[in-house]
Design goal:
By secondary structure, the protein is an alpha+beta fold. It has 6 helices and 15 strands.
């Protein structure tokens, strides 16, 4: 069993192989980044679901189908043990920022990814210049949906109607792609997509509170991620995508935003 402090949960994607998935990542008690994939998050029993900034004890094995160095599988999803949830921002800072490197140069991170030295990292941007929302596809891939429905029907002899309904209770696809535009220490402005679970859920909550006014919902999301977060001490959790780890000029996306309150530098560590 490995103790992992969960720092990242991405918004679910629909996979023709694994159904509905999230990528989960965290830092072990030995100060090592770990990616857990695939995790069918919504199929976990409620008592097994986990929160960000929570310690979990997990039986791990290397994910041999993924060459990225931090990629692992959960041997037995029913064996996950929940531990402390950490609400104190100072303790969160210590666990995350003391135990793992904090990068300020995207060129260095890209070079390390190309050398397969890492695929997960914490970046401290010099300045965040914008939060961008771009419209994208409104529905999941038809082929993947049909595959999931067919797979469920094949299993319905062994499942109750309620279980089949739960199987098809797919998380809605967010019809917008959210990104941060920022400058790192090289002075170059970059734009990276945000795949954080909380960003997607915030959009749906804002849409509900604005009577399905998408423009106002997006403004509310930006209010939090740009206006409010810029008053805090922002760090970005970055991860490469498996498909583009070696091929993209910049294989990283933002998989989490860590925004603790600003502290006096003398009290950080």
């Amino acid at each position: 069993m490995t103790d992992i402090f969960i720092t990242v949960k991405t918004y679910p994607t629909l996979s023709s192989k694994y159904d509905e998935l999230v990528c989960t990542a965290g830092i072990t008690d030995a100060g090592k980044w770990v990616r857990l994939y695939p995790v069918p998050f919504r199929k976990l029993d409620w008592e097994q679901r986990y929160a960000k900034y929570q310690w979990l004890s997990i039986p791990l094995e290397r994910n041999t189908a993924d060459i990225r160095p931090e990629s692992y599988r959960i041997k037995n999803i029913n064996a996950i043990e929940q531990k402390n949830k950490i609400s104190d921002w100072n303790v969160r800072r210590q666990i995350i920022l003391e135990n793992t490197p904090v990068y300020t140069n995207m060129n260095l991170l890209i070079e390390k990814a190309k050398n397969n030295e890492l695929s997960l990292a914490t970046l401290k941007p010099t300045k965040i210049t914008d939060f961008i929302a771009e419209e994208t596809e409104r529905d999941w891939s038809k082929d993947k949906l049909e595959h999931l429905i067919a797979k469920t029907k094949q299993l319905n002899f062994f499942q109750t109607p309620d279980e089949i309904k739960k199987e098809l209770a797919i998380v809605r696809k967010v019809p917008y792609k959210f990104s941060y535009q920022f400058i790192d220490e090289t002075g170059k402005e970059r734009k990276l997509m945000i795949e954080d679970w909380e960003t997607g859920m915030l959009y749906w909550n804002c849409l509900k509170s604005t009577n399905n006014n998408e423009k106002t919902a997006i403004e509310k999301v930006k209010q939090k991620y740009f206006n409010e977060f810029l008053k805090k001490d922002i760090f970005l959790f970055l991860g490469t995508t498996k498909e583009f780890h070696f091929t993209s000029p910049n294989p990283f996306v933002i998989i989490g935003v860590f925004a603790p309150p600003v502290q006096n530098q003398k009290t950080l560590f």
